[in-house]
Structure formats: C-alpha cells, structure tokens
Design brief:
By secondary structure, the chain is α+β, with helices and mostly antiparallel strands. It is 32% helix and 26% strand.
Length: 202
C-alpha cells in the first residue's frame, strides 16, 4: 500500500484517468462527470476538479449528496467553477492513469537529457469481486491511506492535489471551502485569511 501512495504522489501532477463505472451517475443538481471527462475539460477550459470519494454503505455520504450537493446554491456554484467527479471507493473496476516519467539519456556516463516517457499506471481493487468494504487501490492512494468517507479531494486545473477534506459538511460549512478553491484565492492567501472577509449566501 505504501508503494501505491508514493506512486500516486508521483503521477498526480499529470494524470489522465478512466474511472469506468467507479464514477456512478447520481440524480442531483450538481453536474457529475467522469474523471476522464473532467481532466479533458480542464485542459480546454481550466477549472479546479472536486472528487467526492464515497461508499454505498456510508450514511454521511448519502446525506452529503442529498443535503449539500443537492443544495441549489452549492450546486450552482460547483457547476460554474468546478468539474465534479464521484468515485466509489469500493468499486472493482480498474483505473488506468496515463502519465509521464523521465527517461534519462546519457553520454559518457553523464545525464545529458531528461525526456518524457509515457507510461500507464493501473489501480484496482485486489479483493474478490463482491467482497464487502474492500478499498480500491486508487482511493487508498489518493487519500494517503486515510480512508474516511466521505472525503473530498480538490485538484488544481493542472491536476495538482490541493487538499483533502473528510466528513459530512452541511451546505453552510461547505460553501467557504468550495469558494476558496473556486475563486482561486487559494493561490494567494490562506484559508483563515480568506474566511475573514468571506460573506456567506446562507
């Protein structure tokens, strides 16, 4: 598992993934999309990406989906300023991530060039299909082994991981978090500084 965590840190800056059915559709005013679609869209129209990591049995996850992501004010903001992805942390599909590694070119024993070499990294669930509460390798990796549900991973438009937030957040508590990242203020000030002048719509 430690190797997987390090591997994710290595590739998170550049990855383009396929979530297959790990990204399930939910009826919600929030526009959910696959991770592949989110990354592709961010390349054309840069926006941060929000990944909601949940499980089917998680009560707070369901409440978050209904109360927070189902809130019109939250959904309207997310739809405008983010690409939103849902990922089932216990699914059994393979997640393939296309990334690059540095291939060294040497002359007379000295490195003269570092060349990007494309590689594909696969994450899966090692348990037998149907095994209850078995974490997916990708969820374990992106959450640094801290499997709390729900968890929310914020990625920059260039697919750098910005922060992980865990636990249920009602709309009024989630609002300043998403607006901190959605506004881009995270690039110039701390969250504490941001909240000093933040004005809630609730």
């Amino acid at each position: 598992m430690k190797t997987n965590t390090l591997l994710f840190i290595l590739v998170v800056t550049f990855f383009v993934g396929n979530f297959y059915s790990c990204a399930q559709e939910h009826q919600s005013p929030t526009n959910w999309m696959s991770f592949e679609a989110a990354v592709a869209a961010a390349k054309i129209n840069p926006k941060p990406i929000l990944i909601d990591i949940y499980t089917q049995w998680c009560g707070p996850c369901k409440i978050m989906t209904k109360n927070t992501f189902g809130n019109e004010k939250i959904a309207t903001y997310l739809n405008q300023y983010f690409y939103c992805v849902k990922f089932d942390a216990e699914c059994f599909d393979t997640v393939k991530i296309e990334t690059y590694t540095k291939d060294t070119i040497r002359e007379n024993g000295k490195i003269v060039q570092l060349k990007n070499k494309p590689i594909t990294v696969s994450f899966t669930n090692f348990a037998a299909v149907g095994t209850p509460k078995s974490p997916h390798q990708f969820a374990y990796s992106i959450l640094d082994g801290k499997l709390q549900y729900p968890s929310f991973v914020f990625l920059s438009p260039s697919i750098n991981r910005l922060e992980i937030k865990a636990g249920y957040h009602p709309p009024e508590a989630f609002e300043p978090i998403i607006k901190y990242y959605g506004s881009g203020d995270y690039q110039t000030k701390s969250f504490d500084e941001f909240t000093k002048t933040f004005k809630s719509e609730f």
